[in-house]
């Protein structure tokens, strides 16, 4: 299945690439994240639509197969534990939702196997 188009800000791209360039242990999903970054349309922060997931966004999404919904804040790894309901962009689901818009769906590899999620709502700030 084709993955949906995604859009990220130049600022988010630079932050993530900077972390990927550091000589620390890389997360398991680094290949998937790098693939997402490579296919993303990169825009200035002011040009990112309000309904697109960026670092710092509060995102409500659902697991399509079960209908279970979750609300998380997409964060850089260093912030994920300090932010209530934070999820790292380096976590498999964090990498999957980066750059998606409300209504878009994507398949991602979870500990329970491949699942499909849908973005329900995105809030910034």
Could you explain the architecture of this structure?
- The protein has 3 helices and 7 strands; from the N terminus they run E-H-H-E-E-E-E-H-E-E.
- It is of the alpha/beta class and 125 residues long.
- It has one domain: Chitinase A, domain 3 (Roll).
- The strands form 2 sheets. It has a 5-stranded mixed beta sheet with strand order 5-4-3-7-6. The protein has a two-stranded parallel sheet with strand order 1-2.
- The relative contact order is 0.23.
- The mean pLDDT is 90.
Summarize the helices and strands and which ones pair or pack.
Blueprint: E1 7-9, H1 10-21, H2 30-39, E2 41-43, E3 58-63, E4 69-75, E5 86-88, H3 92-97, E6 105-110, E7 113-123
Parallel strand pairs: 1-2, 4-5
Antiparallel strand pairs: 3-4, 3-7, 6-7
Keyword list:
7 strands, five-stranded mixed sheet, single chain
Shape: globular
Q: Count all strands and give the number.
A: 7
> Given the structure, what is the number of helices?
3
**Nearest-angstrom radius of gyration?**
13 Å
Percent helix: 10-25%
- Strand order, biggest sheet? 5-4-3-7-6
Domain Transcription elongation factor GreA/GreB C-terminal: 49-123
Keywords: Elongation factor, Protein biosynthesis
Domain Regulator of nucleoside diphosphate kinase N-terminal: 4-43
Pfam families: GreA_GreB, Rnk_N
Please outline what is shown here:
By secondary structure, this protein is an alpha/beta fold. The protein has helices at 10-21, 30-39, 92-97; strands spanning 7-9, 41-43, 58-63, 69-75, 86-88, 105-110, 113-123.
């Amino acid at each position: 299945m084709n993955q949906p188009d995604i859009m990220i800000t130049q600022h988010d791209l630079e932050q993530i690439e900077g972390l990927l360039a550091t000589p620390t242990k890389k997360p398991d999903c680094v290949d998937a994240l790098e693939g997402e970054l490579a296919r993303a349309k990169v825009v200035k922060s002011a040009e990112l639509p309000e309904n697109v997931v960026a670092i710092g966004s509060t995102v409500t999404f659902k697991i399509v197969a079960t209908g279970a919904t979750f609300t998380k804040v997409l964060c850089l790894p260093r912030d994920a534990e300090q932010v209530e309901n934070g999820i790292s962009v380096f976590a498999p689901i964090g990498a999957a939702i980066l750059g998606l818009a409300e209504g878009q769906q994507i398949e991602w590899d979870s500990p329970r196997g491949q699942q499909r999620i849908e973005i329900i709502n995105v809030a910034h700030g």
